[in-house]
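Quick start: load a record and inspect it. Here is G1 family glutamic endopeptidase:
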Amino acid sequence: MSPRSSAGFVLVTAAALTAALATPSLAASNTPAQLTQAIASHESHTLRGLAQPGKANATVSSTNWSGYAATGSTGAYTSVTSSWTQPSVTCSSATTYSSFWVGLDGYSNSALEQTGTEADCIGGKATYGAWWEVLPASESAYSGVTVKGGDKFTATVTYTGSTFTMTLADSTEGWTKTTTHAGSSGFKNASAEVVAEAPEVGGSVASLADFGTVTFTGAKANGSNLDTFSPNEIVMTKSSSSAVRAQPGSISGGSFADVWKAS
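Running the structure step on this input writes:
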């Protein structure tokens, strides 16, 4: 997929987007701001800058993903799930973004069905939210929900043979959202991912919000722990160097920690 080729997408600069989103209503409240569709419509989660994509059971690098991807042949994966505690972010004046999600496809092709959360700093304000996405469309925010740092989440994507079901549950706030979709055109179900990410915003990979550490637990594909599939470890690095932006720890029993290193 070419960068931001979705129909109807409007390219905006980071400065213009920040100004548009830093509204008085966000600045006036001491409670965390919530993801809106106006924000989400500029975000996407396409894998960028992947090095050595053909390797299996290896450590690879990407400019925007950090985590693990189980890979295989077409039809190898029909479900993926994981749980995590929503990270909190402390914001300065910089605008930064971070997302945490599970998905099918996306590692070795342009298809991707996924759902997750995000922790951003927009206009100096911590902004949290929940979303789903089916490429090549942009992210869609779940409406009518509240997300806070410390909330307990479980995300699942399942292919039923005809459609994909994306479910995100916040056991702390007591809500569950489910979306059913036909999936990306040309989907293959050839990979399953659990990822922390610097999403694309306005067509460019965003600066990564300092999320500290996010710990993924119960990471499974096809009902088995993700590590039983010898997944690739993905380290997020800067595009202009090998400097690490986010680093996953070793995975065992379906659990691993992912640590922020640099924006």
